Amino acid sequence: MSTSESSLDYALMIVAGEVAQQVGVYLRSVFRAPLEIFLKAGIHDPVTIHDRYVEARLQYLLGSSVPSSRILGEETGEHVLTTDIIKAAGALSLQQIQDAYLEKSGRELTAAVAVSDFSWQLAAAKARETSPLIGEVSKAKAIIKDLGQRVRWIVDPIDGTANFASGVSYFNTSIGVELDGKMVAGVIYAPYTRELFTADAKEAVLYEGKTARPMCAAGAKVESKGILTGYFPFRDKNPRRAEKSWELAASLANAYATVHSPGAAALDLAQVAAGHTAVAFGTTMRPWDVAAGIHMVRVAGGNVKTFETSQNRNEPEYLRGAFVASACGLNPVTAHAVVEQFISCQ
Question: Which residue spans within the chain are E strands per DSSP?
Answer without folding.
Answer: 38-39, 46-47, 70-73, 77-80, 151-159, 172-179, 182-190, 195-199, 204-208, 211-214, 227-229, 258-260, 279-285, 303-306, 321-326
